Amino acid sequence: MDERLTKSDWIDHGLQTLANRGPGALKIGAMAAELNVSRGSFYWHFRDIADFRSQLLESWKDWTTQRIIRELEADHDDPDRLKSLLSRAFAGEPKTDRSIRSLDKALRAWAIDDDNVAAVVASVDADRMAYISKLLEETGVESQKSAHRAAFLYWAYLGQPIVMDAGLSSSTAAAIDDICDLFMK
């Protein structure tokens, strides 16, 4: 690989490393060797490993939450944004969904032992549930009910990856429609 890696190259590699091998693999020397560059390439972009990890967490938050919200909000006139979000969550594109799920799983495991990571994960959880609640309110669900329903939908999203039967690991469009009807009443 070229000696002139960008900050994004390092972050992307860090996210992939985290998803595949966990936070213990986020070592400067090992990542530099995997990228076939010197450690100096790392220090060109980051003050230290703590700075890298902080930026890695922000990138994860943006990629798995804020980007999706921005994409859905770009079509703010679409009355089916909740359905679009649920389709992405429960019947999503396998490769993209697996990447997001692997990262979420790795971050949640890391958060058990690191209070800073736990705070970022809690912030992502709050942002995601608030957005689901907002979408429910836009369909006419009362504020208090929308918060409870959003939490329930989010819990389902978090639990879906641990279902062992592959036939139950995603939902059909008809099932998503039915779920939307159930939660939007």
From TrEMBL:
Q: Which residues form a coiled coil?
A: none
* Record flagged with keyword Ribonucleoprotein: no
Listed InterPro entries: Homeodomain-like_sf, HTH_TetR
Q: Which domain of life is it from?
A: Bacteria
Q: What GO molecular function terms would the record report?
A: DNA binding
The HTH tetR-type domain extends over 12-51
Which species?
Phyllobacterium brassicacearum
Name assigned to this protein = TetR/AcrR family transcriptional regulator
Query: Where is the signal peptide, in residue numbers?
Result: none
**Keywords attached to this entry:** DNA-binding
